Target: Alginate lyase domain-containing protein
Amino acid sequence: MAFWRFWFIFFPFTALLFSMVHGSPLNAPVITLGEKKSLFGEKAQANEYVSYALYYWPDPANPDGPYKPIDGKKNKRLRSMDDSGRMAAFIGTVCNLGRQYKLDRDPQAASRAGQWLKAWFIAPATRMQPHLKYAQIRPGHRTEGDGGGIIDLYRMPEFLEALTALKCSNALTAEEWKQVGAWLNQYYTWLTTSRQGRHAHTRSNNHYLFYVAQCAYLASFLGRSHEAAQWLAEAFANMDRHIAPDGSQPEELKRAEPWQYSVYTLQAWGYLVHLAERMGDKNYRYRKTPAGASIQKAVDYLLPYRANPETWPWQGSRANTPLPAIFEPEQAGRPQRKCS
Model:
């Protein structure tokens, strides 16, 4: 299954704006983590990633107290003061460069991707620490993030697909690839042992699925196929928590934008389908739970509303966002290039 199938629709706005300003990813300047200002008491060091919860706002009834959540209302000002835009630019640019290299073997794309990878994973002065301990901090609640911050790296599966393509190139030396692998191994260990990781592992919505997708892809990339298969099996075993027998996604239908979140969660399932099929399980998307749920049922539930957006019965915006590309029938059978 081809890497470009993962050019999903939820490309972060900051990364999109970054690409619009700088044009080709070949021209985009390499940026790294920003200066730490400890806006809400967090103790992050210079090379530690910090972001603030997207839907949290000051409470007018308690101006000096904890911020409160308002689902669907993004606090862009708060996010503009953290590292989330920088992370989005890094992940998005490397994904674009990896895709460009995979399609036409452009050595310039590979070389530029290597510069980004060295800045974020290798160079001591700019290397990000391999954790998301301070991701999506909720102001006034605690000075570290919870499991919800792990979703800031929700595109990790695409990113690892890009790295797989770039391994065929001159992006990095063999020793540098080892250092990238060491960073990813440390991050995987943090994901599976930290307080934040354990919290994400217990969630019942899209956060859980993107967590499992990250873990499964990291295990696969690091050569731990047995662990990757275990993550895939776990996601299927927990499917009834996420997909109803009729194909709806009850946890996402509760949100202020249920269509957007239903499609967004399908992206996580799409990652898992892609990995399962690559590992030889061609039936993963169709397999039903004892209750009758399946990934394909979740797709089929949304397709009629995608064709007729005005019939979407839930609140929020119309059903006008496309489904993840992996679930588009016309994508089937496209060839993928391999290292020669």
Summary: Strands lie at 50-52, 56-57, 68-69, 134-137. Residues 84-104 form the longest helix (21 residues). Residues 149 and 330 are 34 Å apart (CA to CA).
